[in-house]
Predict the structure.
Amino acid sequence: MTTYPPPPAFAVERSGDRKLSTDRTVSATWVSQGSCPDTCSLKNAGCYAETGKSNIHTKRLNEAHALGNFTPEQIAEFEAKAIRRLKGKYDLRAHIVGDCKTVESAKIVADALNEYKQRSGKRVWTYTHALNVPRKVWGDVSILRSCENQNELLHEHNRGYACALVVPEPHVSHKPVKLKDGFTGIPCPFQVKKTASCKDCGLCMNDKHLHAKKLVIMFAPDHGTGKKVRKALQILPVIADNQCGNLTVTA
Ligand code: SF4
């Protein structure tokens, strides 16, 4: 039966995203960008989910959101229901597109994700751009705060978040790089061809380890988003010293 307005969120049992797994053994959720904080510089300005095949789903979800004029909490309820319908056979990546921009919406989604983790015993991970949601809301879900420049890292670390960092240029190598304030940047192993998939890598699925070691996952623009991302980030000097001058490549 077709519902109207269409839901602004869905979950897939077996994601075809080749980055997540090579054999479609990761589940995933997709949510309208109405759930994303307006403070995210990449929203409508270089977000990877606005490119290629992903953009087909992103557009459809955004249209559903426009029709339903949903609140962040209503969107979260749709997502939570979709998560509860998953069988629990696979690791779960939340928010291929989407986020939780209010504390209440984060609680709704976090409850469903923590339930999933408990009933399935699988790994559950996601990322957030929200500035206002305390880390404890997410419980046992592995969540990385997506930062747009190094100046955010220490503040977010002190709020309890492990961090990811969007960098404006391609990685120069797979080697870790020294960042400000004692952080170490790890170029995403998938992007530097050191792993076949997130499922094999697993770094983002253990935010406690990343937080304890002050490790930051670095994401370079992909899917041809480099120009837009550089514009959105205003080419902040966040990467290795042979490109921008403020970092040192470690041995
Ligand atoms: S660091 Fe690993 S788990 Fe995280 S996005 Fe890259 S490949 Fe996936």
Remarks:
- The CA atoms of residues 176 and 186 lie 5 Å apart.
